[in-house]
Amino acid sequence: MENTNPAVTYNQVDATIPNARWWHIIPATILVYIVAFMDRTNIGIAIAGGMDKDLGITSSVAGAAAGIFFFGYLFLQIPGGHFAEKASAKKFIAWTIVFWGGLAMLSGFVQNTWQLMTVRFFLGVAEGGVYPAILALIGHWFPNKERARAIAFFQMNMAIAVIITSPISGWLIQNYDWRVMFIVEGLVSLALLFIWLPLVADHPKDAKWLSAQEREWIETELRNDAEENKRNQGALSKGGYKDLYRSLNLWRMVAIYFFMSAGFYGFSLWMPTLISELTKSTMTVVGLLTAVPFIFTIIGQYIFARLCDATMNRRLFTALSFFGIAISLALSVVLKENVWLSYGMLVCGGFFLNAWAGPYWSMPTLLFPTEALGGARGTINAIGSLGGFCGPYLVGLISLYLGSKMGVLTLVVSLIIAALLTLSLPKVTANK
């Protein structure tokens, strides 16, 4: 029933709105990206589980094989983000699932370094537009006041992926081998279509499962957001793509994402190897220990997103997350002689590891016009994600010549740079 009492607060009115959007859109996006993230990062545990020895590759080449994914990842970022914003995120993602699932399976059949590099590159191409497409989909369903939480819930896929897949991947490697792991997890990717297609709609007007009350509320809020964003943006960014690529804010957001990606993916991909070196455990135990920090990742994401939506200070909570990962990672290296204390610092790093995502990805709508928003997200994710190549590669290369301690400290510096750049963003991202 419509609430007409002027004394009722805005939040109390919101509590009367049905929440079917949270139970259809968010679980489907989480499942898709759980599997996408698994297929992207399971090479880390495969390397720790003997793939490097079987293929005869060094640590620097292993890092390059893990990171070359991100060069392929460039190609569909902007087209994918634009197509999802203007046409259909649902159809775009459905087709990418077919291609990346097949390529994930092919990883189990590679016989040498060049075959591995090729498959990893095209896996990156296939997955490239998925992230900006999902962000566009979330933007069509969740207004500004809910967006940090919606993105944070979606981003929990990465932590859930590691919690679920690291022990399974470790078990598959220990009982079979790394080839079986790739094949089985590729088949799981293809099965996603049976979940994605029936659950998701591109817009509230397309969803038969949505009540009229919820549809009207979402569409009204999104219209209000669009008007407010135009007022707030002012001279920050005007027009379409021509003005977008002249915007300092775009390239600042790209740089932040680049340095974050170097630290984030370096931390994620090399964690199984770090834990293996620390504990000297079996691969099943390494898989289980790798999962623990990501349990705390979910907690950190939820807390930061709630605080961010409550204060609307996007840049502060983004920067705090980067500082938290950097400090935890640095302490894990400093305390390396004490195995479990060092591991405890990795667990603390897990709390901050993905807490930046909800606040960070809420900022593009505040900085860029709707006409170019899909392209802005795609550009940020495309160029910024190259840090995902540089992080793992630098850790492998520096570890080869200077030791693993210096390799990990490179990631710490990268994360601090990302935090400082975040604090330089316009005041509108801090609700000022």
From TrEMBL:
Gene3D superfamilies membership: MFS general substrate transporter like domains (1.20.1250.20)
Domain of life according to the entry: Bacteria
InterPro entries: MFS (IPR011701), MFS_dom (IPR020846), MFS_trans_sf (IPR036259)
Keywords: Cell membrane, Membrane, Transmembrane, Transmembrane helix, Transport
Organism of derivation: Symbiopectobacterium purcellii
Cited SUPFAM superfamilies: MFS general substrate transporter
Protein's recorded name: MFS transporter
Ranges for domain Major facilitator superfamily (MFS) profile: 25-430
Subcellular localization, as worded in the UniProt entry: Membrane
Transmembrane segments: 57-76, 92-111, 117-138, 150-174, 180-201, 250-271, 283-304, 316-335, 341-361, 382-402, 408-426
Pfam families given in the database record: MFS_1
Membrane topology: Multi-pass membrane protein
PANTHER family: PERMEASE-RELATED, SUGAR TRANSPORTER
